[in-house]
TrEMBL record:
Residues 29-228 form the Metallo-beta-lactamase domain. It comes from the Bacteria. InterPro entries: Metallo-B-lactamas, NDM-1-like, RibonucZ/Hydroxyglut_hydro. SUPFAM superfamilies: Metallo-hydrolase/oxidoreductase. Belongs to the metallo-beta-lactamase superfamily. Class-B beta-lactamase family. This is MBL fold metallo-hydrolase. CDD domains: metallo-hydrolase-like_MBL-fold (cd16282). Pfam families: Lactamase_B.
Length: 340
């Protein structure tokens, strides 16, 4: 039996470290965290909309007096499911890598809301985005980017507790960072780790992501808060690293043959990974790998929305039902076909 159950809400990891989990970890259901010592607080990430973030803050504050005022917020990367609630953490220093700041405006909640509300106008990509994101409410969100940046590493004292911010992007995203609490052997990975689900390489290089996984495996860590999924261990990091290596090894010969990335996605035998949650994300990762293999002097910048049409087709190819079937189990709501 797992040490912690994978249930929605706050989980006490011990010695002032907390995780906040949103099952089932699929599209948009992300995790966050809180580190506390005395009256000092550092929060790791916000959630995908204002309602979810407000619920998280209320849960923290109901149990932890110091959480009434958040001193520091660190965004592990720019994806909206880790940043769209930033505006609710008023008065906090907001810290991230420069890559996260550079990437921030790419995730516009108003655009996501427009697509989800008028999905048919955006073709298959819009239909699949609505399927993925319909549990969330993107209204009222004001992008609130970090106000401070760091590169390399940055040590922050939370009371007498040292917290180390470690820049590891670009890999999953343009600006990934790890938040490490060495004395407690706890690390918050953001989307460097997806546990019990398929990772997605929006940026790459994927080889760098694999090396980051190896770095985490070499660290003195016992408890890992993944960006998505249950509270994890190093074995989960190893499993995801092996997935990334497997897809890399299967993709390269097809790239060398001159195959198109989408054709390659359908050609590759995913083996044991075929049944992983959100396996359709492999389409994006293979495109990123093909960019890696090409080693162009200037890396292509690719818009994310068109991928959703391709992922929708690939999910159908895998014989999967709608994404929202899994979401309903997590959110506990019953949604009609015409409801948001």
């Amino acid at each position: 039996m797992a040490k912690w159950q994978y249930t929605k809400g706050m989980h006490d990891l011990g010695n002032g470290c907390y995780a906040y989990l949103l099952p089932d970890g699929s599209w948009g259901w992300s995790n966050a965290g809180l580190i506390v010592d005395g009256d000092a607080t550092l929060m790791v990430d916000t959630l995908f909309d204002l309602k979810l973030t407000a619920e998280m803050l209320a849960a923290y504050r109901a149990s932890i007096p110091a959480a009434k005022e958040i001193g520091v917020l660190v965004n592990t990367h720019a994806d909206g499911d880790h940043t769209f609630g930033n505006q609710l953490v008023e008065g906090a220093r907001i810290i991230a890598t420069q890559g996260t700041v550079d990437d921030f405006a790419r995730f516009d909640p108003a655009v996501v809301q427009q697509i989800v509300t008028n999905a048919d106008q955006f073709g298959s990509a819009g239909v699949f985005m609505k399927e993925c994101f319909r549990p969330f409410d993107f209204s009222g969100i004001e992008l609130t980017p970090p106000t401070e940046t760091f590169s390399g590493t940055l040590d922050i004292m939370v009371g007498s507790k040292k917290v180390q911010l470690i820049e590891v992007g670009p890999s999953h995203s343009l600006g990934d960072a790890l938040i490490y609490v060495p004395d407690d052997k706890v690390i918050y990975t953001g989307d460097i780790l997806f546990t019990e689900g398929t990772p997605i390489a929006w940026y790459g290089p994927v080889d760098r992501w694999i090396r980051v996984c190896d770095m985490v495996l070499d660290m003195d860590v016992e408890t890992i808060v993944a960006g998505h999924g249950p509270i994890s261990t190093q074995e989960d990091v190893r499993t995801m690293r092996d997935y990334l290596q497997y897809v890399t090894d299967k993709s390269r010969p097809l790239w060398e043959q001159g195959m198109d990335y989408l054709e390659a996605a359908y050609k590759i035998d995913l083996g044991e990974y075929r049944d992983w949650n959100d396996a359709e994300r492999v389409v994006v990762t293979i495109q990123t790998l093909f960019d890696d293999f090409g080693q162009a002097p200037e890396r292509p910048v690719r818009a994310p929305i068109p991928y959703f049409a391709e992922m929708k087709g690939f999910r159908h190819h895998l014989g999967r039902g709608p994404v929202h079937e899994a979401y309903c189990k997590a959110c506990g709501l019953t949604h009609g076909t015409d409801q948001p």
